[in-house]
Fold these 3 entries.
Entry 1:
Amino acid sequence: MVSNPPTQLVFLKLGGSLITDKLRPYTPRIEVIQRIAEEIAQTLRENPQLRLLVGHGAGSFGHVPAKKYGTRNGVHDRREWLGFAEVWKEAATLNRYVTDAFIKTGLPVISFSPCASVTANDGQVESWDLYPIRSAIEAGLLPIVFGDVIFDRQRGGTILSTEDLFDYLARNFHPQRILLAGIEKGVWRDYPQCAALLTTITPATFQSMVLHLEGSNATDVTGGMASKVRQSLALVEAIAGLEVLIFSGEEPGAICSALQGENLGTLIHV
């Protein structure tokens, strides 16, 4: 008897820079979101054993009010709580654009709002009931999470990025790959000149290049490229066999290729 091939679990993050115009507030890139949905649907049809969890950033929706109110640093007075609610609304609005595109493509998507289920403590996930997300993955559904406002025991309220959420989820679910799709081709050794792309980063090589990593050139309250690389290195050291790929989702077919195991952009591993 031939056994079924083993199930592979992959996390895919759609960066806010990819799915929104981060230089124009509250502007989704509808055609890009729809194309990505179609590439995901194609990949899942061709590889039914693949299990996927998708996350997306807030882009030009959540980051604008988040910066205005300083939400990530803490929420205490009435003005800041009104800002907290505004960030929630904008993050949820973008999530609806994403889920609608996925549903239109026939993907069995179900969205999980982190605000309703995550408790933070000083900007870190303290607790999260993962049974619903785990059940969705096991049922062959496509769960989506997204950067969101979170109630925090010390700060009152805060914001957790998709990478923050993926960090907690990865340590519990142990995916084989985490794919971080943005508009940059990967991690540049010479940003912002962007002429020398780093194809691999390991814990051993990171220290020699850390000074070359810069943040985003648009409004981003949850950290730039250096933060993403540091979080990724910590994860690959903590989870055996994990690889993290930072790449551009701008080129048609790139999402599909990355989901199929190709190493575009910058691969982070031990």
Entry 2:
Amino acid sequence: MPPRLTAQDFDQELLILFDAYVHGGLDRRGFLAQAQKFAKAGITAAGLLAALSPDFAVGQQVPMDDARLKTERLSYPSPAGNGTVNGYLARPASAGASRLPAVLVIHENRGLNPHIEDIARRLALDGFMAFAPDALTPLGGYPGDEDKAREAFAKLDQSKAQEDFVAAAQWLKSRSDASGKLGAVGFCYGGGMVHLLAARLPDLQAAVPFYGNSPAPGEAAKVKAPLLVHLAAVDERINAAWPAYEAALKAAGATVTAHHYPGTQHGFNNDTTPRYDPAAAKLAWERTVAFFKARLAAPANASAPAARFA
């Protein structure tokens, strides 16, 4: 098997182009046109795009049929007129009927893909009940193709999606098998949504945004949830707005801890792409799980062996 590609194998300008493509700043044709100058040694622009794109099999840490877990696909009512919203629930099988602290898992701008389902399973192995909704449900759900998912996401009614995530948090916390303690973790788009939930939900007890968009500083006064914020080093699109929001949070008396991970790219926790940074991801995830256990009081007897790290 050839060695796994890392961010260091690509020109930084190309990584910035890819970030713009992922987040809608460039379409596929625009990315390929600009990436052509980086194509060399028999690798085409299309080949570069393929190399930078997710490989879910490589990034899977917890098998879908892991006997230590109980997983199921569920739906909850949408208050925004979307009928019901689908999602993926994971619990430790050893917990039985025990009531567990719950964590809402919020995906990137591509819907509920296999990587986010794997994140939910990782949390379940650490003693939590994790639920990952699919914001693309009104448009048919995650389509199984990342390009099609991005295209669908651009058509999503974001105001309705926000209300559906608020409803997901409330639905999860009120389940009969939940302890009543709720946390949230999200990545990129999902990180921004976690910031929004922290301002919207006074009973959210732990919020962990990974490289998510910051709200307007005026929202900081509404935040009651303790925040653990993970930020990449090379991520101007996200990092530019963070200092003002962090200052507003501290001025409002919010509990906030922010970590910047040297040498990392946006998406460094996503182990399905070359932007993945194993050391930073391991540290950020250890901090995340410890934060949830401290804030949500996960029962020690509900824990199972932690997921391996690539």
Entry 3:
Amino acid sequence: MSVKPFKINIPQADLDDLQARLKRTRWPDELAGVGWSRGVPLAYLKELAEYWRTGYDWRKYEARLNEFPQFTTEIDGQTIHFLHVRSPEPDALPLIVTHGYPSSVAEFVNIIGPLTNPRAHGGPSTGSGQASTDAFHVVAPSLPGFGFSTPVQETGWDMPRISAAFTELMRGLGYEQYGAHGGDIGAGVSGMLANIEPGCVVGAHVNTDPTAFIIVGAEIPLDTSTLSETEKEHVERLQQHYQREGKGYLQLQTTRPQTLAYALTDSPVGQLAWIVEKFKEWTNPAAELPEQAVDRDQLLTNVSVYWFTHTGASAAGFLYESAHSAEGWVPPSDVPRGWAVFNSDPILRRVFDPEHTIEHWSEFDRGGHFPAMEAPDLLVSDMRKFFHDLRPKT
């Protein structure tokens, strides 16, 4: 596998173009008093777009991303971009960390340091002068069609194909045994890696939340036979709310992503609104605004990655590929599984793991759909705990 060093360097002309487009945005009207009920409020988005134009410093966060070693390679005819951060600990466990939608590798900037170098970030150690038992060599790829894994060269890049490509990535990097972690799309990829390479994947750890549960439950029949009538009604209320209020983006992206592509590619405010709504809907509901759940600049870094790489369209196209994939739902493998549930609802385990067969199950009141951004300390701690006893013996 040929690997090339990569450095993010967005041309200044692209930054100037972004500012010019933001300045001349043609804003819609808005009915009084509707708040967030019909989408992102006008006043809120105007203020956020103006901050993106005049207050946010892309070069600062570009430099921060470039602190992590980055590379590109070609697998199955597709450019794959990835961060590869090796731990100073010689016995560190290789770990592939996969993002979801609408996210990017920018989601992981606050967890890579603690994962790769726990000594420097307050992590446990086996003692002075000894290697930490909780360190990882982190590989964080951009999904094909997301971020710098572009352009997508052909149709068919669904989750099984992506997972197969990532097994080739880990093999090409020389990792014979490794762990897998992800959320959203990344959770599916992590589970599929465990199915494809059960002899290589020592454990699959995922983060989830009630939003993910509702979405999965709307697409895949859930077994509610063991639930009480009260619990069944609770599940139905959650799913009905999603079907009525939260499924619009998915219906459009799984059926007509090319129609949406023009708005996401031509209008930075359109791309901003499309992503920020999900950060409002999917982060912990205790936060009234997205930036109360995640750092505003980190959120805008994520949006900027989509904008500068023109990947709003191809990322939307992934959901189309998944919806039209010939592959069915993949059952769990025998590889140890870990679930970290944020903004927890007790009904999740009653539905997904009624017999408590998942080896590691953690629930947290804090955080939501993007815990690497919302509650990185909790996520890192849970990952360390899950993988602690799964490391290959030397």
